[in-house]
């Protein structure tokens, strides 16, 4: 009779957390694992899933490998599989040159070091290599937002959108990168999409695996903004199940948009799973930028789960939130004509977000483990600052 291990036993055997073992199983990376109710039965002789950097490429990936070579200079860190905790080691092992410099700039940005990212990318804003230049403009634009250099950010964002207005002779593969960058910048800043925008069906197949995973995060984010939460969550779950978790940066962002979806669907248990999955990946390499960028959209989940256990990291996330949000609004509000609230505390904003999504006072109180009166006080203060008279009016000042 075949012997099986529980999640706890497998975690102890492999030297990882129970949550990581569960994630392995959900992603189909444990051979022979069987779901029994809400638990997993893991074959006794099952091996711990290996470091994706060392996994052999199968024949089905040959086409992807050929495509990947076309994008060797575009967002190299995002497009590199590495085991959580080995980010800097992965960059160190890259060949000296522009690609390595851009990868380091990516690390600076995704670890909340916007000033270093800005200085690193500033050197390549006029690079001859289009993929290097596009990578630079994207990283530079978001770094400038965080640093309050709004004119510089606008210029870089405009350069990104201008790449679509070419003479039509660009290779389809490079045009796919241009489309992805322009689409991503528009969606993540909640701005109007470019007029000349190819469908995702056209450019997704041309993207390398890691970039494709992040592009699917952008697509899921776009569906979230359209309030198609179940569809968005479905894209996230499918993308992770198909190997996106091998690419830590896209995986973090995918998990975070799933948190947003499930909080909007009033499914906090699923939202918690995805938040902690993202946190398990991010904290080992200090890749915390995404948590700051999504703070308001995470619907108070950070307040409930990260703040009590990792207070210092939570404070850093809040610092990122304030800096990024300030620049974000200065680009978003004038272009869209929608005034997103900028004078609420992070707690007021998070609670107002939940209230705007239809959560009751009691549901918010239970989620945050605070009293109903405290919730009412925060909502009243938010309404007072925004000069609105009822909860329905909060929504127009909140992120969608």
Automatic annotation (TrEMBL):
Protein name: HTH luxR-type domain-containing protein
Organism: Amedibacterium intestinale
GO terms of molecular function: DNA binding
Keywords: DNA-binding, Transcription, Transcription regulation
GO terms classed as biological process: regulation of DNA-templated transcription
N-terminal signal peptide: none
Matches recorded under InterPro entries: Sig_transdc_resp-reg_C-effctor (IPR016032), Tscrpt_reg_LuxR_C (IPR000792), WH-like_DNA-bd_sf (IPR036388)
Source organism superkingdom: Bacteria
Lineage: Bacteria, Bacillati, Bacillota, Erysipelotrichia, Erysipelotrichales
Transmembrane segments: none
